[in-house]
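By convention, the token line describes the chain's fold. To illustrate:
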Amino acid sequence: MRSASPLQLTFNRFKKNKLAFISGIYLVCLLGFILIYPLCKELNPNNISDSINIPPNNLHLFGTDEHGRDLFARTIYGTQVSILVGAVGALVSLFIGVIWGAVSGYLGGRIDSLMMRFVDILYSLPSIIFVIALMTSLEGITKEYFNSWGILEGDSGHIVRMFFLFVGLGSVSWLTMARIVRGQVLTLREAPFIEASKTLGASNIYIIFRHVIPNIAGIAIVYLTLTIPSIILNESFLSYLGIGIQPPQASLGSLIAAGAGQMNPIKIYWWTIAAPTSILVSILLALNFLGDGLRDALDPRTVK
């Protein structure tokens, strides 16, 4: 009888975690829906109609906002933006954090001390305040030196602000990844196969990228799934404060902020906040469950 491959064993362990498996299916289905549905049916999230603050009905599944815009379309595009920000920020965290932590842990000595003191300095700064200060500074510099080019106007302005959001969130998202990777590399660098590579004359760069990083890939992937919800939550908070994604563009955070503004003692337009909040919470929970499941599945010591 043919034995199962390591990948098959990992997948079998992952399937036994029902909550993680269902979360993975949910995320795949959600991602497919928000990407494919707009291609099958034309949606305009900025289309203004006379149907102002209409509750959910057959024509507007999630109702409309104070401008008469369809909240179903805006929620789909807002989910796209939030997931894009989370994915890009997590990839930045993966790229910088893994390389920084692997180089620091493998080389050790003064280089390790210098690199990790830099991480400690960034850690000492309040992350959200640092991101806010960095984004406002970048936008201020852009306005001062490139205002005549109209960079912050129209569609180009939305792209530039989103780029600033990537830079701001990416500047702090890799710190924990670097520490986790460094800790793993400190134990891995004394392994026999690393010593054998050194004996054969392999360079440090070759060992780091050929042996060290592939052996900590599982841990990096697990932490990657836990980094995405953190970045999405930070983006939502920044958009809620009016610093991230700005109208008429939408993200889950900006939609929640707009819905919260509709809550008043006279009339509560509950549907303006219910849909984006529900989707945001479901995404965050699913990603955390998925990360826990991957952590158990990728651990060879796990026997279930």
